[in-house]
Amino acid sequence: ARMTSSSDFTLFKWIFGVNWYKMHDQKDDNTYLALDNSLNSFRTGFQNQTSKAVFGNITYPITDSFRATGGLRYTKEQTFSSMFESGRDTEPDVVNMDYDSPDYKLGVEYDLAENSMLYSDFSTSYRTQGNGAAANGKPFPAEKLKAFTLGSKNRFFGNRMQVNASAYYYKYNNYMAVTGIGSITDNYAGEYDSGHDYTGVDPDNLTPIARDLVSDTGNGVLDYIDNNGNDQFDWGTDTLLDGIAYASAGGGPSPPGSSGASQDPNGKTQGNLKVYGLDISTTTLVTQNLKVDVSVSYLKKYFTSLIFTIQEITQGVWNMPAIDYSGMDATFSPHWTVNAGFTYTIPLWNGGTLSPTFDTRYQTSYKMYFLDQILGTDRSIATGELIPLITDVSVSGVQEAYHLSNFSTVYASPSGKWTITGYVKNLENYAVKRSVFSNGPNGLSELTIGPPRTYGGILSVRF
Q1: What pLDDT was estimated at residue 120?
Q2: Which residues pair with 455 in a beta bridge?
Q3: Do 325 and 372 contact (CB within 8 A), yes or no?
Protein backbone atom coordinates (compact mmCIF):
# COMPACT_ATOMS: atom_id res chain seq x y z
CA ALA A 1 0.00 0.00 0.00
CA ARG A 2 1.35 3.43 -0.94
CA MET A 3 0.16 7.05 -0.70
CA THR A 4 1.71 10.10 -2.37
CA SER A 5 1.20 13.82 -2.01
CA SER A 6 -1.29 15.52 -4.32
CA SER A 7 -0.20 17.82 -7.14
CA ASP A 8 -1.71 20.88 -5.45
CA PHE A 9 0.33 20.36 -2.27
CA THR A 10 3.44 22.45 -3.07
CA LEU A 11 5.14 22.69 0.32
CA PHE A 12 7.01 19.43 -0.30
CA LYS A 13 6.49 16.07 -2.01
CA TRP A 14 5.98 12.97 0.12
CA ILE A 15 5.51 9.23 -0.23
CA PHE A 16 4.42 6.87 2.53
CA GLY A 17 3.80 3.13 2.37
CA VAL A 18 3.80 -0.30 3.98
CA ASN A 19 4.31 -3.80 2.60
CA TRP A 20 3.87 -7.36 3.83
CA TYR A 21 5.23 -10.57 2.32
CA LYS A 22 4.77 -14.21 3.31
CA MET A 23 6.21 -17.33 1.68
CA HIS A 24 6.18 -21.11 2.26
CA ASP A 25 8.52 -23.36 0.27
CA GLN A 26 8.28 -27.16 0.55
CA LYS A 27 11.03 -29.44 -0.76
CA ASP A 28 11.04 -33.23 -1.05
CA ASP A 29 13.70 -35.20 -2.96
CA ASN A 30 14.34 -38.94 -3.35
CA THR A 31 17.51 -40.48 -4.76
CA TYR A 32 18.44 -44.13 -5.26
CA LEU A 33 22.11 -44.69 -4.52
CA ALA A 34 22.56 -48.29 -5.73
CA LEU A 35 22.28 -49.80 -9.19
CA ASP A 36 19.55 -52.14 -7.97
CA ASN A 37 17.65 -49.29 -6.26
CA SER A 38 18.15 -50.97 -2.91
CA LEU A 39 19.61 -47.89 -1.20
CA ASN A 40 17.12 -45.07 -0.97
CA SER A 41 18.12 -41.58 0.20
CA PHE A 42 15.65 -38.78 0.72
CA ARG A 43 15.62 -35.12 1.72
CA THR A 44 12.61 -33.34 3.04
CA GLY A 45 12.08 -29.92 4.53
CA PHE A 46 10.48 -26.51 4.26
CA GLN A 47 11.17 -22.80 4.61
CA ASN A 48 8.83 -20.10 5.94
CA GLN A 49 9.58 -16.42 5.48
CA THR A 50 7.71 -13.28 6.54
CA SER A 51 8.77 -9.69 5.85
CA LYS A 52 7.07 -6.49 7.05
CA ALA A 53 8.17 -2.93 6.31
CA VAL A 54 7.13 0.69 6.59
CA PHE A 55 8.77 3.46 4.54
CA GLY A 56 8.55 7.18 3.81
CA ASN A 57 10.27 9.70 1.56
CA ILE A 58 10.19 13.52 1.49
CA THR A 59 11.54 15.92 -1.17
CA TYR A 60 11.75 19.50 0.07
CA PRO A 61 12.42 22.49 -2.26
CA ILE A 62 15.03 24.65 -0.48
CA THR A 63 15.06 27.07 -3.44
CA ASP A 64 13.42 27.06 -6.86
CA SER A 65 16.38 25.12 -8.27
CA PHE A 66 17.71 23.20 -5.25
CA ARG A 67 15.90 20.29 -3.57
CA ALA A 68 16.77 17.93 -0.73
CA THR A 69 15.45 14.39 -0.28
CA GLY A 70 15.30 12.20 2.82
CA GLY A 71 13.91 8.69 3.12
CA LEU A 72 13.58 6.09 5.87
CA ARG A 73 12.57 2.41 5.80
CA TYR A 74 12.23 -0.02 8.68
CA THR A 75 12.00 -3.75 7.92
CA LYS A 76 11.46 -6.81 10.10
CA GLU A 77 12.07 -10.32 8.74
CA GLN A 78 11.48 -13.78 10.14
CA THR A 79 12.80 -16.92 8.43
CA PHE A 80 12.52 -20.50 9.65
CA SER A 81 13.79 -23.49 7.66
CA SER A 82 14.06 -27.18 8.46
CA MET A 83 15.78 -29.82 6.29
CA PHE A 84 16.38 -33.52 6.97
CA GLU A 85 18.54 -35.81 4.84
CA SER A 86 18.62 -39.55 5.45
CA GLY A 87 22.04 -41.05 5.98
CA ARG A 88 23.51 -37.74 7.04
CA ASP A 89 21.23 -36.23 9.64
CA THR A 90 20.05 -37.68 12.91
CA GLU A 91 17.72 -34.71 13.35
CA PRO A 92 16.52 -31.89 11.06
CA ASP A 93 18.96 -29.10 10.16
CA VAL A 94 17.14 -26.01 11.45
CA VAL A 95 17.83 -22.33 10.72
CA ASN A 96 15.84 -19.79 12.72
CA MET A 97 16.47 -16.12 11.89
CA ASP A 98 14.88 -12.92 13.16
CA TYR A 99 16.24 -9.71 11.66
CA ASP A 100 15.20 -6.06 11.68
CA SER A 101 16.96 -3.10 10.13
CA PRO A 102 16.44 0.63 9.55
CA ASP A 103 17.72 1.94 6.21
CA TYR A 104 17.83 5.49 4.93
CA LYS A 105 18.48 7.69 1.93
CA LEU A 106 19.80 11.26 1.68
CA GLY A 107 20.01 13.16 -1.57
CA VAL A 108 20.08 16.53 -3.32
CA GLU A 109 19.03 17.79 -6.75
CA TYR A 110 20.17 21.01 -8.46
CA ASP A 111 18.84 22.47 -11.71
CA LEU A 112 21.76 23.85 -13.73
CA ALA A 113 19.39 25.05 -16.43
CA GLU A 114 15.87 24.41 -17.64
CA ASN A 115 16.88 21.06 -19.19
CA SER A 116 19.93 20.11 -17.07
CA MET A 117 20.01 18.68 -13.57
CA LEU A 118 22.72 17.44 -11.19
CA TYR A 119 21.86 14.96 -8.46
CA SER A 120 23.61 12.99 -5.74
CA ASP A 121 22.39 10.55 -3.13
CA PHE A 122 23.62 8.19 -0.44
CA SER A 123 21.58 5.17 0.65
CA THR A 124 21.86 1.97 2.67
CA SER A 125 20.29 -1.43 2.18
CA TYR A 126 20.55 -5.03 3.29
CA ARG A 127 19.71 -8.60 2.24
CA THR A 128 19.33 -11.57 4.58
CA GLN A 129 20.57 -15.09 3.85
CA GLY A 130 17.84 -17.15 5.46
CA ASN A 131 18.42 -20.40 3.55
CA GLY A 132 21.26 -22.29 5.22
CA ALA A 133 23.54 -21.67 8.13
CA ALA A 134 27.22 -21.00 8.62
CA ALA A 135 29.61 -23.54 10.10
CA ASN A 136 28.78 -22.43 13.64
CA GLY A 137 25.12 -23.35 13.06
CA LYS A 138 23.91 -19.75 13.20
CA PRO A 139 22.30 -17.89 10.26
CA PHE A 140 24.61 -16.02 7.95
CA PRO A 141 24.91 -12.32 8.79
CA ALA A 142 22.89 -10.06 6.51
CA GLU A 143 24.58 -8.47 3.51
CA LYS A 144 24.96 -4.72 4.07
CA LEU A 145 25.26 -2.15 1.30
CA LYS A 146 26.28 1.50 1.32
CA ALA A 147 25.75 3.19 -2.04
CA PHE A 148 26.81 6.61 -3.29
CA THR A 149 25.71 7.99 -6.67
CA LEU A 150 26.52 11.21 -8.55
CA GLY A 151 24.80 11.95 -11.83
CA SER A 152 23.42 14.38 -14.36
CA LYS A 153 20.38 14.41 -16.65
CA ASN A 154 20.33 16.70 -19.68
CA ARG A 155 18.52 17.54 -22.90
CA PHE A 156 20.10 19.61 -25.69
CA PHE A 157 19.31 21.02 -29.14
CA GLY A 158 15.64 21.62 -28.56
CA ASN A 159 15.18 18.29 -26.78
CA ARG A 160 16.52 16.37 -29.78
CA MET A 161 19.40 14.93 -27.75
CA GLN A 162 19.23 13.41 -24.27
CA VAL A 163 22.42 12.71 -22.31
CA ASN A 164 22.38 11.00 -18.91
CA ALA A 165 25.49 10.13 -16.92
CA SER A 166 26.08 8.66 -13.48
CA ALA A 167 29.06 7.58 -11.42
CA TYR A 168 28.57 5.21 -8.52
CA TYR A 169 30.43 3.63 -5.63
CA TYR A 170 29.03 0.65 -3.70
CA LYS A 171 30.48 -1.01 -0.62
CA TYR A 172 29.20 -4.43 0.46
CA ASN A 173 29.88 -6.13 3.77
CA ASN A 174 29.12 -9.83 4.31
CA TYR A 175 28.62 -10.30 0.56
CA MET A 176 27.54 -13.89 -0.15
CA ALA A 177 29.70 -15.89 -2.56
CA VAL A 178 28.86 -19.44 -3.65
CA THR A 179 31.18 -21.93 -5.30
CA GLY A 180 31.38 -25.70 -5.75
CA ILE A 181 33.93 -26.18 -3.01
CA GLY A 182 33.76 -26.40 0.73
CA SER A 183 34.82 -29.30 2.83
CA ILE A 184 35.57 -32.63 1.13
CA THR A 185 34.24 -35.98 2.27
CA ASP A 186 35.58 -39.50 1.69
CA ASN A 187 32.58 -41.15 0.07
CA TYR A 188 33.95 -44.61 0.74
CA ALA A 189 35.63 -45.26 4.06
CA GLY A 190 35.48 -49.10 4.13
CA GLU A 191 38.39 -51.57 4.17
CA TYR A 192 39.92 -53.36 1.17
CA ASP A 193 40.07 -57.04 2.24
CA SER A 194 38.66 -60.42 1.35
CA GLY A 195 35.52 -60.24 3.49
CA HIS A 196 33.16 -58.50 1.10
CA ASP A 197 29.52 -57.68 1.70
CA TYR A 198 29.02 -55.01 -0.96
CA THR A 199 29.80 -54.88 -4.68
CA GLY A 200 30.78 -51.68 -6.40
CA VAL A 201 32.23 -50.53 -9.73
CA ASP A 202 35.75 -49.38 -10.53
CA PRO A 203 35.24 -45.82 -11.90
CA ASP A 204 38.32 -46.12 -14.14
CA ASN A 205 37.37 -49.20 -16.16
CA LEU A 206 33.82 -49.93 -14.92
CA THR A 207 34.77 -53.47 -13.80
CA PRO A 208 33.12 -54.93 -10.70
CA ILE A 209 34.99 -54.64 -7.42
CA ALA A 210 34.11 -55.94 -3.97
CA ARG A 211 34.27 -53.88 -0.80
CA ASP A 212 33.92 -54.63 2.84
CA LEU A 213 31.78 -52.18 4.74
CA VAL A 214 33.02 -52.93 8.22
CA SER A 215 30.49 -50.74 9.97
CA ASP A 216 27.64 -51.19 7.53
CA THR A 217 24.54 -52.11 9.50
CA GLY A 218 22.85 -53.57 6.46
CA ASN A 219 21.31 -50.44 5.02
CA GLY A 220 24.33 -49.17 3.13
CA VAL A 221 24.98 -46.36 5.59
CA LEU A 222 28.38 -45.94 7.21
CA ASP A 223 27.39 -44.72 10.65
CA TYR A 224 30.69 -44.48 12.53
CA ILE A 225 33.19 -41.86 13.61
CA ASP A 226 36.44 -43.76 12.99
CA ASN A 227 36.03 -46.96 11.03
CA ASN A 228 39.51 -48.45 11.13
CA GLY A 229 41.25 -46.74 14.02
CA ASN A 230 43.51 -44.57 11.87
CA ASP A 231 42.31 -41.30 13.40
CA GLN A 232 40.41 -40.42 10.22
CA PHE A 233 36.97 -38.82 10.60
CA ASP A 234 34.69 -41.05 8.49
CA TRP A 235 31.02 -40.15 8.26
CA GLY A 236 28.37 -40.17 5.58
CA THR A 237 26.43 -42.22 3.07
CA ASP A 238 28.31 -44.80 1.02
CA THR A 239 28.12 -44.63 -2.76
CA LEU A 240 29.07 -47.05 -5.52
CA LEU A 241 31.93 -44.94 -6.83
CA ASP A 242 34.98 -44.55 -4.67
CA GLY A 243 36.72 -41.23 -4.13
CA ILE A 244 36.40 -37.80 -2.61
CA ALA A 245 33.24 -35.74 -3.05
CA TYR A 246 32.74 -32.10 -2.24
CA ALA A 247 30.31 -31.46 0.54
CA SER A 248 28.36 -29.09 -1.68
CA ALA A 249 27.80 -31.74 -4.36
CA GLY A 250 24.37 -32.71 -3.10
CA GLY A 251 23.42 -29.24 -1.97
CA GLY A 252 22.42 -30.60 1.40
CA PRO A 253 23.76 -30.68 4.94
CA SER A 254 27.24 -32.00 5.68
CA PRO A 255 28.90 -33.64 8.65
CA PRO A 256 29.47 -31.42 11.67
CA GLY A 257 32.89 -29.82 11.73
CA SER A 258 33.39 -30.23 8.01
CA SER A 259 34.19 -26.63 7.19
CA GLY A 260 36.13 -23.66 8.41
CA ALA A 261 34.67 -20.94 10.57
CA SER A 262 34.17 -18.57 7.62
CA GLN A 263 32.36 -21.02 5.38
CA ASP A 264 29.38 -23.35 5.56
CA PRO A 265 29.43 -26.95 4.29
CA ASN A 266 27.61 -26.07 1.07
CA GLY A 267 30.38 -24.04 -0.50
CA LYS A 268 29.13 -20.65 0.69
CA THR A 269 31.20 -17.97 2.30
CA GLN A 270 30.97 -14.23 2.91
CA GLY A 271 33.41 -11.45 2.18
CA ASN A 272 33.61 -7.73 1.49
CA LEU A 273 33.07 -6.30 -1.97
CA LYS A 274 33.53 -2.93 -3.66
CA VAL A 275 31.93 -1.74 -6.88
CA TYR A 276 32.48 1.46 -8.79
CA GLY A 277 31.71 2.51 -12.31
CA LEU A 278 30.41 5.01 -14.82
CA ASP A 279 27.36 4.89 -17.09
CA ILE A 280 26.74 7.27 -20.00
CA SER A 281 23.69 6.96 -22.24
CA THR A 282 22.52 9.12 -25.12
CA THR A 283 19.43 9.24 -27.31
CA THR A 284 19.61 11.49 -30.37
CA LEU A 285 17.13 12.37 -33.09
CA VAL A 286 19.71 12.85 -35.83
CA THR A 287 16.98 13.63 -38.36
CA GLN A 288 13.21 13.60 -38.19
CA ASN A 289 13.29 9.90 -39.07
CA LEU A 290 16.60 8.60 -37.61
CA LYS A 291 17.03 7.89 -33.89
CA VAL A 292 20.38 6.73 -32.51
CA ASP A 293 20.89 5.27 -29.01
CA VAL A 294 24.38 4.79 -27.60
CA SER A 295 25.47 3.82 -24.09
CA VAL A 296 28.87 3.08 -22.58
CA SER A 297 29.46 1.53 -19.15
CA TYR A 298 32.61 0.88 -17.16
CA LEU A 299 32.45 -1.48 -14.18
CA LYS A 300 34.98 -2.50 -11.56
CA LYS A 301 33.65 -5.07 -9.09
CA TYR A 302 36.14 -6.83 -6.86
CA PHE A 303 36.47 -8.51 -3.48
CA THR A 304 38.45 -6.64 -0.88
CA SER A 305 38.29 -9.74 1.32
CA LEU A 306 37.13 -13.26 0.39
CA ILE A 307 38.67 -16.54 1.55
CA PHE A 308 37.33 -20.02 0.85
CA THR A 309 38.43 -22.34 3.63
CA ILE A 310 38.78 -26.01 2.62
CA GLN A 311 38.89 -28.55 5.41
CA GLU A 312 39.22 -32.27 4.78
CA ILE A 313 36.98 -34.73 6.54
CA THR A 314 39.85 -37.23 6.31
CA GLN A 315 42.39 -35.39 8.43
CA GLY A 316 46.15 -35.48 7.94
CA VAL A 317 46.13 -37.10 4.49
CA TRP A 318 46.41 -34.18 2.10
CA ASN A 319 46.46 -30.56 3.14
CA MET A 320 44.48 -28.48 0.66
CA PRO A 321 45.22 -24.76 1.13
CA ALA A 322 42.57 -22.10 1.59
CA ILE A 323 41.79 -20.10 -1.54
CA ASP A 324 42.23 -16.35 -1.16
CA TYR A 325 40.12 -14.45 -3.66
CA SER A 326 40.82 -11.03 -2.12
CA GLY A 327 41.60 -8.36 -4.71
CA MET A 328 40.19 -10.40 -7.60
CA ASP A 329 37.24 -9.48 -9.80
CA ALA A 330 33.80 -10.80 -8.94
CA THR A 331 31.99 -13.06 -11.36
CA PHE A 332 29.79 -11.76 -14.20
CA SER A 333 31.51 -8.36 -14.12
CA PRO A 334 32.68 -7.22 -17.58
CA HIS A 335 34.77 -4.06 -17.35
CA TRP A 336 33.28 -2.52 -20.48
CA THR A 337 29.82 -2.72 -22.06
CA VAL A 338 28.85 -0.76 -25.18
CA ASN A 339 25.35 -0.67 -26.66
CA ALA A 340 24.31 0.97 -29.91
CA GLY A 341 20.94 1.07 -31.62
CA PHE A 342 19.62 2.65 -34.82
CA THR A 343 15.96 3.13 -35.77
CA TYR A 344 14.84 4.69 -39.06
CA THR A 345 11.16 5.46 -39.56
CA ILE A 346 9.95 5.37 -43.18
CA PRO A 347 6.59 7.03 -43.97
CA LEU A 348 4.56 4.97 -46.46
CA TRP A 349 2.12 6.07 -49.16
CA ASN A 350 -0.89 4.74 -47.25
CA GLY A 351 -0.15 6.69 -44.09
CA GLY A 352 1.46 3.79 -42.29
CA THR A 353 5.11 3.57 -41.23
CA LEU A 354 7.91 1.05 -41.54
CA SER A 355 10.56 1.20 -38.80
CA PRO A 356 13.64 -1.04 -39.14
CA THR A 357 15.86 -1.23 -36.05
CA PHE A 358 19.38 -2.59 -35.64
CA ASP A 359 21.04 -2.87 -32.23
CA THR A 360 24.25 -4.44 -31.01
CA ARG A 361 26.01 -5.00 -27.69
CA TYR A 362 29.70 -5.50 -27.00
CA GLN A 363 31.09 -6.76 -23.69
CA THR A 364 34.62 -7.49 -22.58
CA SER A 365 35.46 -10.86 -21.02
CA TYR A 366 34.40 -11.84 -17.51
CA LYS A 367 34.62 -14.83 -15.20
CA MET A 368 31.60 -16.98 -14.43
CA TYR A 369 33.35 -19.15 -11.84
CA PHE A 370 35.45 -18.11 -8.89
CA LEU A 371 38.33 -20.51 -9.53
CA ASP A 372 40.67 -21.37 -12.38
CA GLN A 373 41.23 -24.90 -11.08
CA ILE A 374 39.06 -27.27 -9.04
CA LEU A 375 41.15 -29.21 -6.55
CA GLY A 376 40.13 -32.71 -5.56
CA THR A 377 41.38 -36.19 -4.72
CA ASP A 378 40.68 -39.76 -5.72
CA ARG A 379 41.50 -43.02 -3.97
CA SER A 380 43.47 -45.76 -5.67
CA ILE A 381 41.40 -48.92 -6.09
CA ALA A 382 44.48 -51.08 -5.60
CA THR A 383 46.12 -49.41 -2.61
CA GLY A 384 43.49 -47.14 -1.15
CA GLU A 385 45.90 -44.18 -1.24
CA LEU A 386 44.68 -40.66 -1.98
CA ILE A 387 45.88 -39.10 -5.24
CA PRO A 388 45.38 -35.46 -6.29
CA LEU A 389 43.08 -34.55 -9.17
CA ILE A 390 42.79 -31.13 -10.83
CA THR A 391 40.05 -29.92 -13.15
CA ASP A 392 40.95 -26.88 -15.26
CA VAL A 393 38.02 -24.45 -15.59
CA SER A 394 40.08 -21.44 -16.68
CA VAL A 395 38.54 -21.66 -20.18
CA SER A 396 35.04 -23.02 -19.54
CA GLY A 397 34.62 -20.63 -16.60
CA VAL A 398 35.30 -17.48 -18.65
CA GLN A 399 33.05 -15.74 -21.15
CA GLU A 400 35.29 -14.24 -23.79
CA ALA A 401 34.74 -10.74 -25.18
CA TYR A 402 31.85 -10.87 -27.64
CA HIS A 403 29.26 -8.85 -29.54
CA LEU A 404 25.63 -9.75 -30.15
CA SER A 405 23.27 -8.04 -32.61
CA ASN A 406 19.55 -8.01 -33.35
CA PHE A 407 17.41 -6.72 -36.21
CA SER A 408 13.68 -6.01 -36.33
CA THR A 409 11.19 -4.22 -38.55
CA VAL A 410 7.84 -2.85 -37.42
CA TYR A 411 4.99 -1.99 -39.76
CA ALA A 412 2.35 0.24 -38.15
CA SER A 413 -1.05 0.70 -39.80
CA PRO A 414 -2.24 4.24 -40.63
CA SER A 415 -4.71 4.12 -37.74
CA GLY A 416 -2.08 2.76 -35.35
CA LYS A 417 -4.50 0.05 -34.18
CA TRP A 418 -2.35 -2.85 -35.38
CA THR A 419 1.31 -3.55 -36.04
CA ILE A 420 3.34 -6.37 -37.52
CA THR A 421 6.87 -7.01 -36.27
CA GLY A 422 9.47 -9.29 -37.79
CA TYR A 423 12.70 -9.91 -35.90
CA VAL A 424 15.97 -11.80 -35.90
CA LYS A 425 17.83 -12.10 -32.59
CA ASN A 426 21.49 -13.07 -32.25
CA LEU A 427 22.45 -12.40 -35.85
CA GLU A 428 25.94 -13.77 -35.18
CA ASN A 429 24.48 -17.07 -33.91
CA TYR A 430 26.94 -16.80 -31.03
CA ALA A 431 26.67 -19.12 -28.01
CA VAL A 432 26.91 -16.82 -25.01
CA LYS A 433 27.91 -18.65 -21.83
CA ARG A 434 25.31 -18.05 -19.14
CA SER A 435 26.62 -20.15 -16.26
CA VAL A 436 29.14 -22.85 -15.44
CA PHE A 437 29.11 -25.29 -12.56
CA SER A 438 31.62 -27.93 -11.50
CA ASN A 439 31.83 -30.27 -8.54
CA GLY A 440 35.42 -31.15 -9.27
CA PRO A 441 37.09 -34.16 -10.89
CA ASN A 442 34.58 -36.75 -9.65
CA GLY A 443 31.49 -34.59 -9.80
CA LEU A 444 29.01 -33.06 -12.18
CA SER A 445 30.08 -30.35 -14.61
CA GLU A 446 27.50 -28.23 -16.36
CA LEU A 447 27.64 -25.36 -18.87
CA THR A 448 24.57 -23.33 -19.79
CA ILE A 449 24.51 -21.24 -22.98
CA GLY A 450 22.16 -18.62 -24.34
CA PRO A 451 19.72 -19.09 -27.24
CA PRO A 452 20.98 -19.39 -30.84
CA ARG A 453 19.88 -17.21 -33.73
CA THR A 454 16.13 -16.83 -33.33
CA TYR A 455 13.60 -15.31 -35.71
CA GLY A 456 9.88 -14.75 -35.60
CA GLY A 457 6.94 -12.42 -36.07
CA ILE A 458 4.47 -10.60 -33.83
CA LEU A 459 0.99 -9.33 -34.68
CA SER A 460 -0.34 -6.75 -32.23
CA VAL A 461 -3.90 -5.39 -32.31
CA ARG A 462 -5.37 -2.64 -30.12
CA PHE A 463 -9.11 -2.60 -29.36
Answers
A1: 97
A2: 424
A3: no
